[in-house]
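Structure ticket #2291
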Amino acid sequence: MGLLSEGRPLSWEETKKCAPMVQKLAALQFLRIYHREKDRNGDKFKWGDEIEFTLVTFSSDKKKAQLNLLAPLMLPILQQPELTNPTGHVTKWMPEFARYMVEGTPGAEPYGDNLSDVQLVEENIKLRRQQIYDLLKDISPGTFPVTLSVFPRLGCPGFTTPEYEPRPKTAVMKSHTFPDEVAIQIEEQPRFMTLVKNLYERRKGKIFSKVPVFRDAATPCPFRTGRAAKGEKIENGACGGLTENGDLMQNGGSTENGCSVEKDDADDFIFLDCLAYGTGCCSLQVTLQAGNLSEACYMYDQLAVLCPIMHALSAASPIFHGYLADVDCRWNILCDISDDRTLGEMGKEPLEEGEVLMPRSRWDSIEGYLATTKYNDKEEPYNREVFEQLRKEGVDEGLALHVAYMLLRDPLLLLDEPLHNPSDTSTYLYDNLMLTNWQSVRLKHPLPNGKAAWRVEFRTIELQLTDYENSAFAVFMMLLVRAILSLRPNLYIPISKLDENMATALVRDAAQSGKFYFHKDILPNGVSANHCSDVTPDGMPNGDGMCSKQDLYAEECKFPLMDIDTIVNGKGDFIGLISLIKQYLHTVDITERAQSAILQILTFISRKASGETKTTATWIREFVTSHPKYKRDSHVPDEIVCDLMSRIKEISEGRVSCEELTGRPNKQPS
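Resolution: structure written out below.
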């Protein structure tokens, strides 16, 4: 999760007083980084993945699957090889928000620029899973790790072992369903508790999300969960739902069972009443290193456009709090429950003194591109004093706007030691604000020790059930970036259309039914992949490759709506992402074995995009709706979840094949 510094966490009142000073000092720290690293060039391409594992066990009567809160006990043991062999360990382990989660990465060295490394990715993910298994055999033999974006009965009664009762009147999160003891590693990381407290206090109200329920034949009408089901009034709601302006999406109209849905604020939504419903989810993240700052900004921009596409393609979250949802992904829930804006900053009430209208949550899609501002067609707030300071120091407009946007936010978690005793080389305050702006992609600066250069973190891939699928998505992103950096395509679309794409990505079955705005001429000026000299060294297309402000929307402006099959596999004159990768592969030397592994991965992604194989969300949804105990009422009880976890365990261990997910016809180790 980052920010693992020493010191006493400051309360919100202390933090609020420090905020203006912190923003100014953070700007100075960024400038120190910028001047030290802006001319850095020639760093080799490196990359790695981060996967969060969920610990699951079955109850003694085998009728319930529960989350096992063993992470605090396991982490010191998993981390021991790193402590004893800092330069030679092959896996690295870190704490996460909840006590049932552990995060693993490749280890001391990331993967390199040799394409043969693709063969190591699945092996390393398998090794991470096996290390968890080996440890669990000794301390909890019935527990097993799964790679699941969200546990289906998260927050339901008895969803953990040991079990805890919610204490809404005294707990930090004030949740009626999710005990603090589950979500926060209180003894190990008190900063988590302070972050939650400060987020709630800054918000001036409770944080929650409303997820539209999947309406089936026997779904109650109106459908209500939690406090809404008891008739309690819900106040200070987050901007849940899927509409562009942040208002709650209402289902409306008639349903399959003939019931008319009332447009009541509490009706027809699954009510998630605390931060842990987002931070307690898991994901796959990929971080990629650029050769220099200019290349990193270009990579950031191109990857940002791909975030909705990969989110929909990897969709894996159809169930929340024990109910089928009318969405397949978790992104909007994360936006809602990480949202520290006041109602005034959301535009729902008049602004108070010192407040600024802020259209986005802290967790959201990007506010603008870095390498060019031509497509930044939405007005976004930013710290004007910081922006002017950065521009005077020579920072490019796009990057300066981005940093000033982040430094408009208040810090959520400050520690007294690095705040009051900063070193001349410290980047703590800048990192603090950067790491609590949870955007779809993240620009990461070089580390002082020189081991890491300018990097971009891709953050929207949902976790898949098997190690093969997770490695395939990670490798696909790496190959796509290699092709992007080599061939310099132009994927830019206006930010307004990127926001629309992200909303589309959340819709149920968006991977097959969704239409996404995409640049129809991704190779600038129509040049072929073998003739890319019409591109400047920093990756920006020359001449007509870029839209001007004037023609941004002309003729649907070069950004037609496409389905994911077309975007990935190509159609007609549109090349498609896989063909882009294949053209890149023709320009590099690669072993026959690595080429075979890559082609298998490209086939897997191609079939996922075309619908030949299912998304994880579709597979889970169909497992539930075809289960003999499902009553077509949207409810997913313990018995169904227990059977689902049992099947997922068999698939992830390679004991049962699942061709409809992986495309592999025979039993394969995961």
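Closing remark: The chain is about 35% helix and 10% strand.
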